[in-house]
Amino acid sequence: MFGEELRRRREAAGISLRRMATILHVSPGWLSRIEREQHYPPTHLAAAADTHLGAGGALISLAAASDAKAGHLRPAELPSGPAAFVGRSSTLRTLDTLLARAESAGTTLTVALDGPAGAGKSALAIEWAHSVSSRFPGGVLFADLQGFSTTGRAADPRRVLERFLRALGAPPERVTSADLDELAAHFRTIVSHRRTLIILDNARDPRQVRSLLTGPVGSSMVLITSRRRMTGLTVQGAAHRVPVTPMEDDDALALLRSIVGDERVDAEPAAARALVERCAHLPLALRIAAVRLAPHPHRPISGAVRALADDRDRLDALADGGDDLAVRSAFAGSYRELAPEAARAYRLLGLHTGPHISTPAVAALLGHSEPVAQRLLDDLVDFHLLDDISTGSSGRYRFHDLLHTYAGERAAADESPEGREAAITRLTSWYASCVDRANYIIAPQRRIELLPPPPDVAPLDFTDAQQAAAWCDAEAENFVPIVRLAADRRQAAAWQVATRLWNWLLIRKPWTLWEESHTIALKAATSAGDSEAQAWVSMNLGEGYRQSRRYKPAREHAQRARVLRDEIGDRHGQGWCQASLGFLSIDEGAPELALTHFRQALERFRETDDFHGETIVLAALSEAHDLLSAPDEAEDAFQAALSLARRMQDLYAEGILWFRHANAHRHRGDMQAALESLNSSVQCRRSVGDAWGTAEALALRGDVLAQIGDDGAARKSWQQAQDAFEALGDTRAAELRQRLTGDLPSALADQ
């Protein structure tokens, strides 16, 4: 271990802890925590210690091994910085100084960059972060918080935290939570042990970022950018404020020179300065104007000045000291330089309201093939009208807020209403079909009729469940915006996207997304008068409430779905409604009522040849019979369910079946058989990524182990279950916490 070896070499060299801390420019307390393996050693500290103690690279290797031992890949989420970053030397030095002080003290650091739109806050933050990223062995996280997006919907901190936790290598069962405070606590715990740099770009206000900050423990850093001063953080001393103002003349001219060349600036010095003035010294506006000039060496700078000066709105904005219209004018000049197809791509991209978009989605939006879409995207990136945030071979893009605003304006002005609606329909139908196909691949045993292929778009094909789930993970932030976009236009895609996420929702449990998408979808289906859609959305929403132990709304939605199914005569749908009501009855301690619901559900599933549904209900029937002291009927139902599940290779259903069978064995007093059934349940559920089901089985496994007197194993199983339920925001976590903090006999007596 690094800490042990560092202490051994330090003591062998006769160097005190305090003296070594001075040599390494850190506090003695922080160095002591590193030696006691309470902190991962930063790369730069390991290198300095290795050099001073003559370790020949041994300490550097141990530091790398310490990070690898955590079992996580190092996130490196920084997007590429601008090709021609110049100036800002004073601000960069300030950031360097703040970081050096924090490193010396061994403390966390939060810095808030604030300034006007277009001042280059994001570019500055990314440029500086790239220069120091190697000093953060825990990796670099990046999130655009969309605080000033044109949709008016800032990024939800819960979703940002879920993505951060996935990037930090947290297991799926610990990634999602319905409770923001619990989710934030998981994040703070991880980064307290891993020196991580977190960039929170485009924050709306202190309230949005507060749950995304690190705690006081550790040595991580948070760098925030915002158009507003983060007064709520800086006044409380939680963050250092660093203002970012429009560029000084010399820096702005240097930026212009880096793009169009020294010769052109030297040939027209007055025009160059005038162009800087016309762009309000804003690097974003100046960069766009310069990029528009660069490919045309014979076009004078003075011509660009005249083009910008012709916009009366821009002149009014400059007189008022604002920047929006100046930036808009710069965008207009760049937009006018685009080829017709690229201009169309730019304005249609303004119709997408999600935080980012992939190349295949752009192809659908435009009605083009992917190669053509990629070429147009490259054109827009070249003109700095779109940011390329791709990682690996996956193409993904995003707008700066102001560029998105302008794209939407151009769509309204230059695209016909029919053209806009057709583009939106292509996009929403593409998402619906992709979600549909991913849903099927994730759990093919669940009977589903695939949506017909939409015209003019090419949905993705998935080769396996892992790829399908990974696509859903990558697109998760876009699902609610797409559902809302479709709902605003009364499109069926609103409820198709929501309901056909079902299999992914079951294995990932993103409660916020689940509830929000289905709430929007239910309103859309109700407005459209589609009873079948209302029934599916209501039942899915009710099941989400049930699994998160919100039984009142769960029953309301399940009963609403049953009424709708009865009205339209949907026998198969009635089966799932009866099953849902049966699950609720079991949860609420009413096995006789549950038995009635399950028998009706079983009849419907057998009528409609839904073998998966039949398996699930037979498993539930077995448990209900056992609760009613009918062991023979329970065993018959179990064996029938097991035979069906294995015939279909339905591991999800088999995991549920073994769990319910374990309950039966426990009820009869056969604890060894209960343990064997629970081990089978955990194995099946883990194999299909069923985080909630795995936690449920682990919790019961702890109960059984405690009953047979294996206290250590019981606590271990309960702890695993508590961690999983806590990540999912499930109320069972509190119950397990109570068991873990009390003595085992009293904890079991309260069950």
UniProtKB/TrEMBL annotation:
<keyword id="KW-0067">ATP-binding</keyword>
<dbReference type="GO" id="GO:0005524">
    <property type="term" value="F:ATP binding"/>
</dbReference>
<dbReference type="Pfam" id="PF13560">
    <property type="entry name" value="HTH_31"/>
</dbReference>
<dbReference type="InterPro" id="IPR002182">
    <property type="entry name" value="NB-ARC"/>
</dbReference>
<dbReference type="InterPro" id="IPR011990">
    <property type="entry name" value="TPR-like_helical_dom_sf"/>
</dbReference>
<protein>
    <submittedName>
        <fullName>ATP-binding protein</fullName>
    </submittedName>
</protein>
<dbReference type="InterPro" id="IPR019734">
    <property type="entry name" value="TPR_rpt"/>
</dbReference>
<keyword id="KW-0547">Nucleotide-binding</keyword>
<feature type="domain" description="HTH cro/C1-type">
    <location>
        <begin position="6"/>
        <end position="41"/>
    </location>
</feature>
<dbReference type="InterPro" id="IPR027417">
    <property type="entry name" value="P-loop_NTPase"/>
</dbReference>
<dbReference type="Pfam" id="PF00931">
    <property type="entry name" value="NB-ARC"/>
</dbReference>
<dbReference type="InterPro" id="IPR001387">
    <property type="entry name" value="Cro/C1-type_HTH"/>
</dbReference>
<dbReference type="InterPro" id="IPR010982">
    <property type="entry name" value="Lambda_DNA-bd_dom_sf"/>
</dbReference>
